[in-house]
Amino acid sequence: MTDPKTPSLSEPLPGDPSREEQIARMLRVDHAGEYGAVRIYEGQLAVLGRTPAGDVIRKMAAQEKKHLERFDRLLPQHRVRPTLLGPVWHAAGFALGAASALLGERAAMACTVAVEEVIDEHYAAQAQALGNEEPALRSTIEEFRQDELAHRDEGLARGAEQAAGYEVLTAGIKAASRLAIWLSTRI
Ligand SMILES: [Fe+2]
Ligand SMILES: [Fe+2]
């Protein structure tokens, strides 16, 4: 199913942004998302770094850093400026990670599940919008999407669903993540 908010590159509709602008938006929001992910895991590590969950979170954080580094290279290559909201995601990502971790390891894992599910949907919609265009970017997105799904699975395996208030917590974090995506695509 095509996400109505994600215009297809191969079948543009009147009023759709140009192909170049669409690629720029994708790179900008993906860069912002990976930056936010790094900060969330750094926030979680500030609280849980020395607990048994620390190694799992460190592994996920290291992968997010690799994702971020890839977009750090891609943006200048495509002459795309990063989102202006970087300082916001710097603070908000860390705060979300630390706050979820302060509620306990399971809540931290619930945060991971919520964020990664939203990123999964987001990357899937982008891959579909790209179709056969920009194969290198598409394969990057597909590769990262698999990593994000592995993070979600790790969160589920470590008891995310047993976190107190799991439904409310994940619904709130998903809403916030979708808003962050919406903003980072545009600003
Ligand atoms: Fe990532
Ligand atoms: Fe991730």
Annotation keywords:
single chain, 187 residues, 6 helices, elongated, binds fe (ii) ion
Layout of strands and helices, then pairs:
Blueprint: H1 19-48, H2 54-77, H3 86-102, H4 105-130, H5 135-157, H6 166-186
Helix pairs in contact: 1-2, 1-3, 1-4, 1-6, 2-5, 3-4, 4-5, 4-6
Q: How many DSSP helices?
A: 6
- The best one-word shape is elongated
Described by its quaternary structure, the protein is single chain
Helix content: over 70%
Calculate the terminal CA-CA distance, rounded to whole Å: 27 Å
Bound molecules: fe (ii) ion
Tell how many strands the DSSP assignment holds: 0
Q: What's the rounded overall pLDDT mean?
A: 92
Class from helix and strand fractions: mainly alpha
The fraction of residues in strands falls at under 5%
In N-to-C order, the SSE pattern is: HHHHHH
The unreliable regions are none
Q: Roughly how many Å is the radius of gyration?
A: 16 Å
Largest sheet: none
Question: What's the short story on this structure?
Answer:
The chain is mainly α and 187 residues long.
Structure characterization notes:
The protein is mainly α. Helix content is 75%, strand content 0%. The radius of gyration is 16 Å and the shape is elongated. Bound molecules: fe (ii) ion (2 copies). The site of one fe (ii) ion (FE2) has 6 residues, from helix 1, helix 2 and helix 5.
